[in-house]
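Interim report, section 4.2 (structural modelling).
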Amino acid sequence: MNDDVTELKRLVDMAAGREPADLLIVNAKVVDVFTGTVRESPVSVGRGRFLGFSHIPARETLDAGGAYLLPGLIDAHIHIESSMASPARFAELVLPCGTTTVIADPHEIANVFGADGIRYMLESGRDLPLDIRIALPSCVPAAPFEDAGAVLDAAALEAFIDDPRVSGIGEVMNFPGVIAGDPDMLTKILLGLRRNKAVDGHAPGVLGRDLDAYFVTGVSNNHEIATPEELEQNLQRGAYALLREGSAARDLAKLLPALGPAAFRRCAFCCDDRHPEDILRDGHIDNHLRQAVRLGVDPVQAVTMGTLNAAECFGLRRKGAVAPGRDADFVLVDDLHDFRPRRVYAAGRLVAEDGRVLVPLRDTPPARTEGSGRFDGGMRMAPLADDAFALRIPAGAARVIGIEPRSLVTRHEIRSVVTDGDGFFHCADNPGLCKIAVIERHRATGRLGVGLLSGYGIRGGAVATSIAHDSHNVVTAGDNDADMLLAVRALAEMDGGIVMVCGGTITGRLPLPVAGLLTTAPPAETGRTLGRMIAAAHADLAIPAEVEPFMTLSFMALPVIPSLKITARGLFDVERFAFVETAAEAPLPV
Amino acid sequence: MNDDVTELKRLVDMAAGREPADLLIVNAKVVDVFTGTVRESPVSVGRGRFLGFSHIPARETLDAGGAYLLPGLIDAHIHIESSMASPARFAELVLPCGTTTVIADPHEIANVFGADGIRYMLESGRDLPLDIRIALPSCVPAAPFEDAGAVLDAAALEAFIDDPRVSGIGEVMNFPGVIAGDPDMLTKILLGLRRNKAVDGHAPGVLGRDLDAYFVTGVSNNHEIATPEELEQNLQRGAYALLREGSAARDLAKLLPALGPAAFRRCAFCCDDRHPEDILRDGHIDNHLRQAVRLGVDPVQAVTMGTLNAAECFGLRRKGAVAPGRDADFVLVDDLHDFRPRRVYAAGRLVAEDGRVLVPLRDTPPARTEGSGRFDGGMRMAPLADDAFALRIPAGAARVIGIEPRSLVTRHEIRSVVTDGDGFFHCADNPGLCKIAVIERHRATGRLGVGLLSGYGIRGGAVATSIAHDSHNVVTAGDNDADMLLAVRALAEMDGGIVMVCGGTITGRLPLPVAGLLTTAPPAETGRTLGRMIAAAHADLAIPAEVEPFMTLSFMALPVIPSLKITARGLFDVERFAFVETAAEAPLPV
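Predicted structure of the assembly:
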């Protein structure tokens, strides 16, 4: 007998009662996602798997005290990088929330480290009790003219596709490319389809014929659904709707009330992007369950969306339910409205209790195959000249990126500005405007774009961050060049993270030593530091309350979201899909 | 660009309206199995796939005249051999019923021809518009002591498992073996699991801890569910319930009323065994739809069970729904209660209309790798002595197989019998009893078992058939040795099929020239011949109306179903799981 057969035989022997099981849970109410019901039943566990529902001999018995027993929760689409946590630290964040499986798209770290970034996420998370499945980033870089750290073509992805922990192809966000029939995108999609793996979608606001063209390719799901109309059209086209409740986008309240009874099976839950402080405060997929029940969804249906449906979407036959042979990932909760996880089990092992992780969680990062061989911050900027951020606007009219609070979309403004005798712009002469700059940081090309920002409100200092979607170059904003220079230089010295400068003094530092995106520090500490820095940015730098100081900057460099953005190559007009000068001809006529 | 990319790009170009589609259907009501609703929408088709729901340019437009448009129906588990039809002739039977995909387990032909039998089914059906997926027979022979034509071990199955048309492992009917942890069964199960393919179940009447042990292995489904209690326990354990309505077993009326609303998604439809005359008269999966709606099931739910749910059970991502990218298999019907298929399309092509197939359907059998190189009737019997069926019962007491009308289960009777001076049994002296014999026919071993049958009622003749589950040796029954000999010799000469003899004359012949199980003759002709022979068996041979004359015999040799059966090695006591003598010690005390 080979090992697998021996292992399977042990399971059968345990389930049949010929060998003692590892664990028998009694006095539990099992949430049955297959029949949509709750029933009192013993549940047995052996070798990390559920064995069945019979009173069989077991080495250990657990009295659940009448608690509800749910399958472990599944996040159907998340970028772990948004939590700023390494895989182990992310596990520390979400295991206490009852999450035992995530489909993670390492799009951000791949933009910094390329294939090595994917390998980091795959290997670093391999031995964790959190089951991290990897969706291979399909759009690195996000746009062809971007200065990302890597270009991942289909051949690069192919090296990973057969790994059993790879769920398939990550969100195909170049939806215009797909709809236009771009062969590179289609090749990547086929790479997943041929293995019968999922190909994740990203199609915000796409409807009708364009949505037909997008899904005719075999893309499996969409997490960018924001309206009932989109929801209906996506479901009709056979896409799984991954209902999102992240730190920025919050879609449940818009979508769940519009969902017909038969369509629940086609919906799962995801966070997409969720910051550590939000997870610490409001939870993870357990938060979706609470929201859904508050919105009137039947609790068992809510659990089903957070478990079985996600497992089915990704073909994870051993996940998503309490049933013989499936992985014994489960959560004990006291009720089906608050869903507070009392105890969380992964593969049959108690891993978290009352919000605390009970097992050691260590990252086991591989060696890098490129560069230094280490997963450092990836900060490779050319030296910055003292006048790097000088901005000349000869005609006195400038394009300005207008921040829309709580939105990734910006306004494309054209404004009259006051300049000095040589035509240089100074914030002091232009209330309401500040400077923003993006500095290439992957291969020291020295590329640097400088522009103007309205609505950020910063006074008396600067902020710099190495998180800047999707290329993660350095972005800085401030009301004076000196503080901006100080912030960026401190950021380089720290090898990535977030730096805040107030009147010539560094007043806040969050180091993100992995790719300039992630930290291996305890999430609670990261959350506290970040919370303090956000408070200080509002208090000391006068950034308005409705503008999140760091995340807002991180999205100013994303040239695929309207209207005006900035990259290391300069200002980008998303509507015209072309670079433009900050110096404009003249203000728009009123 | 490689071919696949070019092909996919053409689909996208069509869906986006840049290239004309092949077909645009207007004025149809689309049954949407994702949202559980019906809506009026155009449906476009190109390159054999659905493109979408937009009015796009197309080379051909079809006005559906307000008909309902359903996804093509799926039979989740069938033995094509029960229809006595070759794959092409089976397609001729079921395409007009709206069936476009079947999961076929070639268990019967594999018992005759082994791996060649699997190859016959795979290759012969390759170019048909009916999509035949093959589940690899896991239990050949059905019992270790059986004289089947082949033994298929895990290595033999492994040769087929990666074929994309192989759905996985066929029904694991040796459920006692699985529950006992038999390594051979577990090895076969793992063969499917490792490829992420389905492993089909067969667990009649199994409950509780035994059912836990059965499903802990990863078996995916069960079509042997006969009671609401079994249904509930199977669903709870994560098994797909394949609800059966065949020629013998009819389970829908027992099960559908017991099904809770959330559990519908875990149920699909299957026939298991369905004879040609039943398909011709009552239909195939369309019959399930009619039955289900009559039993009160919502029509769209019924369609969903007959389409999407089966596709999901088997991981067929391109089947089971009308949605962009899926295979354009669909059916037009006038209403959602009769479900009479007006037109049936497979891969975008009109293949049947008003009960008639419109396209040529040809079997393309491969060459055999063994024996004659031909797929002949597989009749390899040793010559039969004239006294082959002589039966001596010295003590005047005999075990008798008691037929239970409309059941595969038999009674184990012990009866006093009258014998001649030499102790030989003659039917003429024993009203109500007849002889039954099973003759090994795969390798001319000369093995031959003779026994007694009650309830068959035959007078003045004999019947012989080469269909005898599961080993398909020859079985004959008659009230005199001469007619039995004549029937079996005629059967050998015909190279398999069914023969009926009345008073020394052959009065009926159904040749089954492939494996002694299948014919390539038109199904209507087969159905007519069979109908005439059944009528004659009742009229001329006095077989009671409640006993199907041929099928009844075919199951007398199946030694895994209680209580007393007969094989070429003699009488088999299923309860004791041991061979027994026909001559008994004495009748049971009354």
